[in-house]
């Protein structure tokens, strides 16, 4: 038989890195698989900035990177197994990624899949019964090896066929990560991210923006998701939202990404943020947005802050306006947080 090959799901976290290392050290050829979803702080264009890229480089393995947007967004809108921490559809996400890794097995002529899951580490997605259910759902029962917890789980095909030695795998369980850190020190591994550090859906503040989007715009698409990553968000009405840049970089980004039917609001010759109105809005919502933008102008010499409204269309019509700063308590009532 030719050399045994496995597909390892590489998130960039410590567990997935260790899992790949344990199998790699047994002489198995390991190919890393990393699926980029819209809720990471990086994309396909800057994958080299990711912990997954650095982890694969440290391990000395190939990293096959694939984009996973449409199918993941569909799972986010209606997860069959609910949400985990905050708005993360963790069970549906894992099933989707294992399904994609199974496709890569065929593409790369591999024999099994490696994941960094640890029995009992996460109450929703890493219980033994849930992992068993996921293996059945994906049609990969017996072909998903979890090296960090293998001795606590039923033997898999790679162990039964002698592709890997069960005794050289681990019996880690529970939420403590002491054993993983000790193993990382033993292997001299340095390139890994904090647990769940890469997915914005696990972060409470970002999850609130996603909840707001699901409530008011359930038919959202990738472009709406990308807006969630920029600025402070204010819900002006059921159909209108304002994004306000937090710094010069975000201000410029909002101006750059503005689309037809949207409205830019920015200060006129005074330091201040840029705002982008999205959705369906009228004069009432515009007045609210102006007051919010004016609030963030800290050094206005007059009660009225000069503003420019720029409608995004073929002519990019600009209108000079002025507004008084909204009271803080009113603004906070509108803020998505």
How many separate domains make up the residues? 2
Main sheet characteristics = 6 strands, antiparallel
Percentage of β-strand residues: 15-25%
Task: Give the beta-strand count.
Answer: 11
Order of neighbouring strands in the sheet with most strands: 6-7-9-8-10-11
The run of helices and strands is EHEHEHHEHEHHHHEEHEEHEEH
Q: What sort of overall outline do the alpha carbons produce when their principal axes are compared?
A: elongated
Oligomer kind: single chain
The CATH fourth-level homologous superfamily of the largest domain: HUPs
Helix content: 25-40%
How much is the radius of gyration in Å? 24 Å
Ends distance = 57 Å
Count the helices. How many?
Answer: 12
Secondary-structure-derived class: alpha/beta
Q: Quick check: average pLDDT?
A: 93
Q: Which spans of ≥5 residues are poorly predicted at pLDDT below 50?
A: none
Q: In the CATH scheme, what's the topology name of the largest domain?
A: Rossmann fold
CATH level 1 name of the largest domain: Alpha Beta
**CATH architecture assignment name of the largest domain:** 3-Layer(aba) Sandwich
Describe the structure.
There is one protein chain. With 337 residues, the chain is an alpha/beta fold. Helix content is 36%, strand content 18%. The chain is built from twelve helices and eleven strands. It is elongated.
Give the helix/strand layout:
Elements lengths: L4 E5 L4 H11 L4 E8 L14 H9 L2 E6 L2 H8 L12 H19 L3 E3 L13 H11 L5 E2 L11 H4 L17 H10 L16 H13 L5 H6 L4 E4 L4 E5 L3 H10 L5 E5 L6 E6 L3 H13 L8 E8 L6 E7 L3 H7 L3
Parallel strand pairs: 1-2, 1-4, 2-3, 4-5
Antiparallel strand pairs: 6-7, 7-9, 8-9, 8-10, 10-11
Helix pairs in contact: 1-7, 4-5
């Amino acid at each position: 038989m030719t050399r045994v090959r496995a597909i390892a799901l590489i998130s960039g976290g410590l567990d997935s890195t260790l899992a790949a290392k344990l199998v790699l050290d047994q002489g198995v050829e390991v190919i890393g698989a990393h699926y980029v979803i819209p809720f990471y702080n990086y994309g396909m264009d800057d994958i080299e900035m990711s912990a997954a890229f650095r982890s694969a480089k440290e391990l000395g393995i190939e990293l096959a990177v694939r984009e996973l947007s449409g199918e993941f967004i569909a799972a986010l809108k209606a997860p069959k197994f609910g949400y985990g921490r905050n708005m993360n559809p963790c069970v549906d996400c894992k099933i989707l990624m294992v399904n994609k890794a199974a496709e890569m097995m065929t593409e790369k002529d591999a024999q099994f899949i490696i994941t960094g899951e640890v029995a009992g580490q996460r109450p929703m997605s890493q219980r033994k019964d849930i992992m068993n259910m996921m293996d059945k759902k994906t049609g990969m029962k017996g072909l998903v090896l979890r090296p960090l917890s293998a001795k606590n789980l039923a033997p898999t095909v790679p162990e039964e066929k002698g592709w890997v030695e069960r005794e050289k795998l681990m019996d880690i369980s529970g939420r403590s990560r002491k054993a993983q850190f000790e193993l990382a020190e033993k292997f001299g591994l340095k390139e890994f991210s904090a647990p769940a550090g890469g997915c914005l859906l696990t972060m409470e503040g970002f999850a609130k923006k996603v909840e707001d989007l699901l409530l008011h715009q359930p038919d959202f698409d990738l472009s709406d998701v990308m807006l969630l990553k920029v600025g402070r968000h204010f819900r002006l009405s059921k159909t209108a939202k304002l994004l306000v840049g937090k710094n010069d970089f975000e201000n410029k980004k909002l101006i750059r990404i503005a689309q037809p039917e949207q409205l830019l609001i920015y200060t006129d010759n005074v330091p201040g943020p840029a705002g982008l109105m999205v959705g369906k809005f009228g004069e009432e919502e515009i007045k609210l947005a102006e007051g919010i933008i004016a609030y963030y102008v800290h050094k206005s010499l007059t009660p009225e802050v000069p503003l420019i409204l720029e409608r995004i269309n073929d002519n990019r019509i600009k209108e000079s306006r002025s507004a008084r700063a909204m009271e803080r308590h009113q603004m906070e009532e509108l803020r998505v947080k």
